[in-house]
Every structure is written in C-alpha cells, then in structure tokens.
Amino acid sequence: xxxxxxxxxxxxxxxxxxxxxxxxxxxxxxxxxxxxxxxxxxxxxxxxxxxxxxxxxxxxxxxxxxxxxxxxxxxxxxxxxxxxxxxxxxxxxxxxxxxxxxxxxxxxxxxxxxxxxxxxxxxxxxxxxxxxxxxxxxxxxxxxxxxxxxxxxxxxxxxx
Length: 160
Fold this sequence. Notes:
alpha+beta; Thiol Ester Dehydrase, Chain A; disordered N terminus; 6-stranded antiparallel β-sheet
C-alpha cells in the first residue's frame, strides 16, 4: 500500500525551511510564502560565515537561496496528481553582493495552464523559470534559471 504524502501548508513549509540547517547556518531566511503557493520571498543576510575570500556573498549561498522555491511552488500548486523535479539550473553572477540580498518567486496561472496543457496526455514538460537576486536598492546581483521536469502521474500512481 502506498504511503500518503503529508500535506504541508505554506506556513509550516516556511517554518521548516527556515530551520533547515543549510539555510539556518548560511543566513538564508524565507520571509513569505503566499497562502495559495503563488509566490515566495527570501532574504540572504551578509555574515562573516557566508562571505567569500574577497568579502562578498559566497556564490553557493546566492544559488542556495533560490534553489528549492520553483519546485515547491509548482508542486504544491499542481497537487499530488503531478511529479515535479528539479532538472537543471544556471546562475549568472552579475555584481558583487555586499549587503542583504533578496529573491522573489512569482508563479503565474498562465505558466501553470501551460504545464497542465503540455502534460495532459501524460507527457513531460521541461519548463524554465527565472528570478533575480537583488540588493536592497533593487540592483541585480545574480540571475538564476531553474528547469523543472513536470509530468502528470498515471492513474495507478495516484495516492488516494
């Protein structure tokens, strides 16, 4: 008998991710996840433990602050009828980050409809999402792209 996946709420996910050791110990803080899973906001504070050799944000921390959010938003919005996995990722470091930096993720109904349409017959969708990591003044520090693999589960895999 298949195990039931526990249904998380945006608030419980926010708390869980904020206490997740890689985020807790790197200065990443989830500020908000929308009640309908349509958006999220994240902040990375500058600390002595997440600076690189030249005193700017460590690139791994800049990427990590963006890593799980597209998958979380899409997975929780589409529901249990879909398989959602990270497939690929890219980051372009635009400028040195020297203070607090932020990332926002906004999932549109248009993108969700596109995914549903492509996967309606059981096929897969490979969908790219983009977001910027910005400084407090709005200047771009990094551009992040994530590709998700999304497929509708066959009827036999659906958990009741």
